[in-house]
Amino acid sequence: MQTRFVTYTGPSPMQDGAPSRQACQGGLRIRCFCSKACIRMKPGACGMADGVAGIPASNPGREVTTSPVSSTGARRAVIACAVACDRAGLKTGHLGHLVQIPAREAAFAAVRVRPDYWTVFSDAKAREAAAAAVPAGREQGLMARIQALGDTFYRGHEGGFDAREVVRIDDRLDALDGARLAGITTFPALLFDHESRKVVPTPNLETLNRAAEALAAAGRADVEVNAPGTTSSVVLSALAEAGVTQVEPGNALHGTTPLPAVDDLLEP
Fold first, then answer.
1. Cys bridge to 228: 151, 238, 248, 252, which one at CB 3.0-4.6 A?
2. Could you report the per-residue pLDDT of 151-208, keeping only the tens digit for each?
3. CATH 3.20.20 fits 20-260, yes or no
4. C-beta of residue 161 within 8 angstroms of C-beta of residue 147
């Protein structure tokens, strides 16, 4: 089956340019990504750090263990079943990355799940997350999903803030009681190219770079840059060099990106 992609050509007819997806989705942080001790993105990074999915950072060439992820030191989840993981004692690093948190679930997410990061596609979703965090006595870190003309998305994953407005977006989110802008994100930032048999950047990665530069120029340098998409141990150093601070391990954890079909990788 051929994967269908769409190119962003302008605002969506839906509110704030962001489709509202009524489902709950987890995510995972990366600068401490899929855990509190996950992937630290810096120049020269070459592997999935600190035991993500059983891959010891100190011995990246050894076999993957069969012990639970939590036994490796992972303390943050980035998977869809955030509620089930929370009940099992694995905390959630990131919610809402692919699918926005429904309004009716926002209070539960803020009070019980308490993610480190919560991705929002619009001001309306940001207000929901912030309002839910106030009764919990929390200041929720928000990831703003951004988009620009020419960006590539999987069909059904479109949406987000206008990247050109990123500084004003920061102002609006920081002004919310109960929330602040903690980072910017997109998906996918990388895709597998069948002709070159390599993972290559999408226009989305450049969109993130421009937005991060705009924020830095405005004096807002302490912002995470979350750039998932075909994540693998072999792309981490390139992402770090590009200024990325977070990724979502996703399919890399079980080796189901296209890369293992053409090369031997550290991941299973």
1. 248
2. 999 998 899 999 999 999 999 999 999 999 999 999 999 999 999 999 999 999 999 9
3. yes
4. yes
Q: CA neighbours within 13 Å on the CB side: how many for 100?
A: 25
Two tokens, residue 247: 């990724």
Decide: 131 and 108 in contact? Cβ < 8 Å. Answer: no
Question: Strand, helix or coil at 239?
Answer: helix
Report CA torsion sign: 157, 88, 247, 243: positive
Look-up of token digits 């120029």: 217
Instruction: Report whether 233 contacts 265 (CB < 8 A).
Output: yes
Separation CA 49–CA 33 (nearest Å): 9
pTM listed for this prediction: 0.74
CB atoms within 10 A of CB 262: 11
Q: Where are the domains of the chain?
A: 20-260
Phi, psi of 262 (to 5 degrees): -120, -5
φ/ψ region of 197 (left if φ > 0, alpha if ψ in -120 to 50, else beta) reads left
Characterise 54 by phi-psi region: left (phi > 0), alpha (psi -120 to 50), beta (else). Answer: left
